[in-house]
Amino acid sequence: MSTSPVAGAVMAWQNGQKRLLFLFEYTTVRYVSTQNKKLGLLYRIFQLTIMGYLIGWVFLKNKGYQVKDDTIESSVVTKVKGVAHVNTIDADLWGPEDYVFPNLGENFLSIITNFIETQNQTLGNCSEDPSIPYNTCSKNEECTAGEAVRAGNGIKTGICLETNNHTCEIYGWCPIEIRKDPDAATIVREAENFTLYIRNFIRFSQFNFSATNVPMENRRSYLKNCLYNKTVHPYCPIFRLGDIVSKSGHSFEEMALRGGSIGVLIEWSCDLDKYSDCRPNYSFVRLDNLSEAVGFNFRFARYFTDAAGRRWRTLYTVFGIHLGIMVFGSARKFSIIPTIINIASALTLMAAGSYFCDVMLLYMMKKKRSVHTFTQVESNERMTTNDAIPEGLKRKFSL
Ligand SMILES: *[C@@H]1O[C@H](CO)[C@@H](O)[C@H](O)[C@H]1NC(C)=O
């Protein structure tokens, strides 16, 4: 018997179709409903826990339905105001032009709170500070003319001053400053009442959102009268220097004497789903108290020329409060993708819960042979003992 080529082709086509059918196959899970109270309770508790986790922790606590942008773009402008009585040779009153360094209104600034003044320095020859090392001599040859004194105040002239602790004579601004500790008597007391105005603009480019720390409503009159206070005026951008120091946990008196560094932290935590919820939070922390050598000081000079062309200067070693204004924070906004991902992961956990309950069910069934006494399996047929376990489950757990 021979097959015709047509019949052969038809058979081949039918075989091919059978092979392709698996692509369109869909297997369902067979469900078993049980009235076991313990198991049911366990499953409900598990479901409730997952729901609680999803709603309470993921969505309410961690805002899992939002995306976060923590690259904050920020600009800070500062302005210090206040005048103080001082007792210096040049002036008896200091304004911000005199005591703020640098005076560009930047986010790092120093406000002078104490000073040591060395008056009437002129360029000339004089003796060097004997406490400076590598500058002792016993004869002129040991002082190389033209050589600078390391960490000193001038250039060696080539003369050894035997009358002055055997130090090399220098050319520089003379007389040199006498090293001493800062004196509490020269503290600029009024500095405690100086005010610092901080203007901060921020932007979160991912959400194209901008904000500022200066309240917009009644701006002018508000700024004239307000002073930052954590409870009364938490959004006033004007700060009293004394408050900044005390909020950092130190006394103004102690800090004004030798100076110090304080970080003014502006934290933005913006929930862009709530329109008004993007306000700064200020905190103050002292940054220089890790070592014994606390304090902050630097030197500057003011120069004078008289009608005869004689030049002199006043040198100041100043102690001050160094402020660094640091801005950080993040913004959040609803987004469908994290929402779906979080819900999906909670659903996966729930599936794990039903898997666990399946295992428990099987375990109970195996242990107690009589199904009727504790569980009733509703299936097409009533089954007893081991037969109660449906084929699907048996395969699932390879019993
Ligand atoms: C600071 O200002 C208050 C109130 O204006 C004043 O009573 C106090 O004496 C001032 N403090 C100093 C150190 O000037």
Shape: elongated
Q: Ends: how far apart?
A: 49 Å
Helix content: 25-40%
Major beta sheet summary: 9 strands, mixed
Please trace the helix and strand order, writing H or E for each element.
Answer: HHEEEEHEEEEEEHEHHEEEEHHH
The total domain count is 2
* Rg (CA only): 41 Å
Low-confidence stretches: 370-387, 394-399
Can you offer a commentary on this structure?
The chain is of the alpha+beta class and 399 residues long. The protein has two domains: 34-63 and 337-396; 73-128 and 176-334, Sandwich (atp-gated p2x4 ion channel fold). The model is unreliable at 370-387 and 394-399 (pLDDT under 50). The protein is built from nine helices and 15 strands. It is elongated. The chain is 27% helix and 31% strand. The longest helix has 32 residues, at 336-367. The site of 2-acetamido-2-deoxy-beta-D-glucopyranose has 4 residues, from loops. Residues 189-190, 192-193 line the site of 2-acetamido-2-deoxy-beta-D-glucopyranose.
